[in-house]
Design a protein that fits this description.
This protein is mainly beta. It is built from no helices and 40 strands. The chain has a domain of 124 residues: Lipocalin (Beta Barrel), CATH 2.40.128. The N terminus is likely disordered.
Amino acid sequence: MASVSPQTGTAKLLRVTDARHKVGFLNARFELIMSPRFDFAEAPSEGLTLVSEGGNRGFLDARGQFAIPPTLADAEPFSEGLAAAAVRESGSLRFGFIDHSGHWVVAAQFEQAHSFREGLALVRANGVDQFVDHAGKLVFKALGERSDDLRGGLTRFVQRGKFGYADGHGQQVVRPRFEQAAEFFEGLAAVAVGSRWGFIDAKGAFRIPPRFVQANNFSAGWAVVALSDHEYGFVTPQGTFSGKYLAASDFQAGFAGVLVAGVQVGSPPGGPSGELWGFIDTQGRLVVEPKFEKFEGGFREGLCAVAEPGQGFGYVDAHGTYVIMPRFVFAHEFVDGIARVEQQSATGARDFGYIDRRGTFVYGPFPIS
């Protein structure tokens, strides 16, 4: 049978995967408009969905019709009006950039090409990484042996095993001196000196000294950090540390999961105990008491899939109140108003399908095998 996975973006196509792992599409009314036949499908970008069929790639429009036929040897989703795409010449791939009609704006000439970000795309020509503009003209050659796409006006590069950063003109702004380094998020980048992580600004100065054994990227003004394997918390851009948790998740839609040790909320003395998840907001306030054994993903479209000890998955709102009561073996995040869930059927087999925000199946359920 088939499974369905919704996509985000302007195209309201729902991806359907059959037992062969081939992908087809439903429309917003859950009608099958394209039988499963594709090897994979990306989430739509700029109204077009990248699909692969028989080793070639093309793009579907919002109706599930081919806007660009599957004749490309390789392609990436659209970004800034263009998509990196490739043709095969004499056994090798040559990359260029196409527009929404499939017209080659930049001829296929590069050995590799990334999607555009912040006005520039990273490509490889004659074995050299470089950044080009929307016309395919060279802007600057990348520094070091390896470079990344621009983010926040900077590109991370590696030189002799050390990470540094260059600006959007190819000028080095942070010399390569870090054993490990992340991209910039909210003006700061996590970097490692030895085994300790801290955060630098765009000039390479430490804003938060390296004292953590783990550091995630900043999100919503906070970054998850760890002082030890079992002591997690959050740090602000000013370096203020708060929280003392066994684990913590990044913020999503204004909430982050935190794992604590203790007795389940509402349990009598001697009741369920152990490690339980709750949620904090961006002010650091505990808004959902720790009582969940696990959660999936995080809050999305106002709901989060959670499971209490000894119970199935259900969905709670930002106050921790159940909107959909626990009854599922597994549950995914909501996307475009529906969520994929699995349940135990009357025969004991496992079914799957998609529910709406009321918990009603809108597609399925179907046997998993």
